[in-house]
Amino acid sequence: MLRTTLKNLLARKLRLLLSALAVVAGVSFVTGTLVLTDSLNQTFDTLFANATRNVSVAVRAINAVDDSSAGNSPSRPVPSSLLDVVKGVPGVRAAVGDVDGTAVFVNPRTGKVLDTGGAPGLGTSWDGGTAVSAVEIAAGHAPHGQEFVIDKSSADKAGLLIGDRVTVLTKGAPAVYTLVGTFRLAGQDSVGGATVIAFDTATAQRVLLAPDEFTSIRIAAVDGLSQTELRDRVAGVLPAGVEAITGKQLADENANAVQKAIGGFSTFLLVFAGISVFVGAFIIFNTFTMLVAQRVRELALLRALGASRRQVQLSVQLEAGVVSLVGATVGLLFGPVLAVLLRLAVAAIGVSLPGGGLVVRPRTIIVAYAVGVVVTAVAAFIPARKAASVPPVAAMRESFVLPARSLRSRGIAGGALAGIGALLLVYGLTAVTGKSGAAVVGIGAGLCFLGIATLSPLLARPITRFIGSPLPVLFGATGRLGRENAMRNPRRSASTASALMIGLALVSAFAVLGASIKDSVKETVSNSLGADFYLAGSGFGQGFSPDIAQSLRGKPGIELVTGLRSDVAQIKGKKGTILAGDPVALPQLLALRQVNGDIAKLGNGTIIMDSDTVTADGLVVGQPVPVVFPDGPTTLTLAGTYKKSQVAGKYLVALSEFSRHYNSDLDIFVMVRIASNANIADVRKEIDSVAKAYPNVTVRDQSEFVRQQEKQVDQLLGIVYVLLVLAVVIALFGIVNTLALSVIERTREIGLLRAVGMSRRQLRTMVRLEAVVIAVFGALLGVVVGSFFGWALTRALKEQGINTFAYPLWTVVLVVIVGGLLGVLAAIFPARRAARMDILRAIATT
Questions:
Q1: What is the pLDDT of residue 69?
Q2: pTM score, two decimals?
Q3: DSSP one-letter string for 329-356
Q4: For residue 544, what is the DSSP state?
Q5: How far apart are the C-alpha atoms of 725 and 740, rounded to whole Å?
Q6: What is the spatial distance between Cα 296 and Cα 299, in angstroms, rounded to a whole number?
């Protein structure tokens, strides 16, 4: 049986190759994702380990909101006087105070801020040459006074030269410094893609933090003293609110914070990899089903010669196993290539990932083969069972058709699967949160697809008849034959169309969601924001100087201005994001609608909250609210409540209150309202003149702000569509495979058509039209299912501000047209093969 199986594989190399391609595509996507994320994790692990390799202990303020700083800056600085205290601890070889903050530079040659692809612009104090340092001067010398040094990678990218006079933007007004050197971190030119600017300690304190304060203190131990022992000694001399951690813990925290972000990115990619694998399973199932149907006499002969049912089933499963091993091996080899392509795709939308070698871990190899083998084995199981059911007597018949389950029973099963899937999908989107919710949604979506795929043979004949109705008019007898071929075997057509349905359904769902998000943004800006101009940083979440908002106050024609800041706190035992702004301007510019109390009383010692949260927490206006900020617990008086606002969030405090508890003094956003009698063009000039000195800030009016939000949505949709392309390509392989096997199955019929006068061109047209009908059928199924998914997603995100449902009709029409074009593309090879058949040999085929 083994030799027979191998001979069958060699005899059907081309047919099984297309099935193997489906495995290759899915496995390479999974492997590429794992290789990329493992490579990024190793890059950052190495970076943080090298950055702290000489640090035995770090001293920092305790973050009361979170037991671990998780790689973020401490909530509050530590006094510089603590440095001398730490130096006196036995076992301390050296101690250095660090100052960290935000700093970006303006390229003197372009007048613009360097594009770091989403990486932050960091400012720090220079500690090169000390016992705790891992940095070294690459060229030039250390900074003093109005000088700075920068990482070599950023200097090279910007074309900076030593001696250049460069404007640096920090928390205060822009200032010009002289570039006196470049540096490397542990021998590396780049610091994880970030731009790092270093000043001497006194200058860093002045422009990044405050005089007589450090962000943290790093300590090197004497030889022979462990990190843990030194940490315990240092902890004994620290005041309340300050902690000591080992250098290893510091490196781990920094790495864990990055790994958490990379983990989310990995999950995002693996979801789409799973979709590709799911689509591939349809292709494998369809291919082996058709192969079994074409080999009935061969299988019956094996049974007649003594092969048992089990041997026949194992033979088919073995064929599938060989396909899976070949596909998984090739997919594993292509995985690193796809990882590079994914890196380039992310860079194309403006997000640069740090460089580094590709990492292929043993786990990646195991997963690659597990995915390939398991998916193929499961997909081929039912066809293998059908193969085992072929009776020996079938060998004596000219034709034998395998019994198939009635369409009625398929309809019941498919309806049940689709109904359960839809319920799980809606339940997961609306009632469950976190990873559990995502799992429920995934299971629900998978059951929906399986249910529709099971139901689709019931729909195939009437829908393909409708789709193909214009073909006889347009193409005559050729068009009629193409339509009838698509209708001939509804199970086969439906199975092929279902693979395409999955990819196009998800395209349609995200198109609906994207259109709804855009309409919701327009509505929110019009009805839930009271600003005329919006100022935002050019980087991803990068803050900018509060001097901008301060400079705009009192300008002619400007009525209200507020900078916005936000961070995490614990309010009545629950973590949440607090938004802060000017107490007078903030409620008006956020268009808050008061419910109880007086939201105008927002100020020091007070908080205002949305009414739904207040009701859920059992609070009343005037009551003290327990709040834990990073610097410790306190109570704020509830001054008033407002109607729920997606923009404002749940909690608002005044900037003055926020500044007492957080070390962040950079605005993330500025909102401006002009006076009723002001000329908007004149006010725009005033705002632009203030912002001109800050190239890291962009000014937008309402319409520009809406367009920018829409652009971000389009970018996100672009990423999703690119990731779904692989699933659609796999479905394309499926159509090619089905048509190719169908052509082989109909060899005699094709020979007879040629014998009675059908030209090669007409034959090619017939096969193409059959492919178009099947592809459009799949596209229509995808559009219907995707529209439901899009509606469900929109409804589920209502609480997140997606309160408008919009249906992108023309995008959906385009999806159907693309489906038809994919059919034409898929038919090229099978049509050419059919047209090249020798007429006499084809007629003689049995």
A1: 45
A2: 0.80
A3: HHHHHHHHHHHHHHHHHHHHTT-PPP--
A4: B
A5: 22
A6: 5
